[in-house]
Amino acid sequence: MEEKYLTQEGLDKLKKELEYLKKEGRIEVSEQLKEAISFGDLSENAAYDEAKENQSMLESKIVDLERLINSAKVIEDHQGSGWVKIGSYVTIKSDGGEEKYHIVGEEEANPLESRISFKSPLGRALMDKPKGAEVKIETPRGLLKYKILKID
Description:
CATH superfamily of the largest domain: Transcription elongation factor, GreA/GreB, N-terminal domain
Number of domains: 2
Strand order of the largest sheet: 5-4-3-7-6
Low-confidence stretches: none
CATH topology of the largest domain: Helix Hairpins
Helix content: 40-55%
CATH class of the largest domain: Mainly Alpha
Mean pLDDT: 92
Structural class: alpha/beta
């Protein structure tokens, strides 16, 4: 099973979500099923079919979260190492100005929150580079150049 990289914060969030789904989520689905069954004939009961599908999706999500949590590798703090690693906060400069990114695993990547995967084109280019390094990325818009200004 492939290791999945998560911050401690991300792992805690997934554990909380799993706990919620196992308790409240299952109770909600159980209530939906009870209500749908009360409508009578199950062979032509759309509410029952929907509740069963919701139950199936919930159980699937629980299994997926358990797998992810069990295969998770918590990102170590590399602060002060001087090299970009998973978990690093990297400030880069391009023609468009300065930007700061948190390098994370795929499961936590969210570009809108400046959290990029170490497997993304920019993440791959930055990995294992020191402060001051320049990286280039080929994109559909052409070649983009970045300089690493700071690594936290």
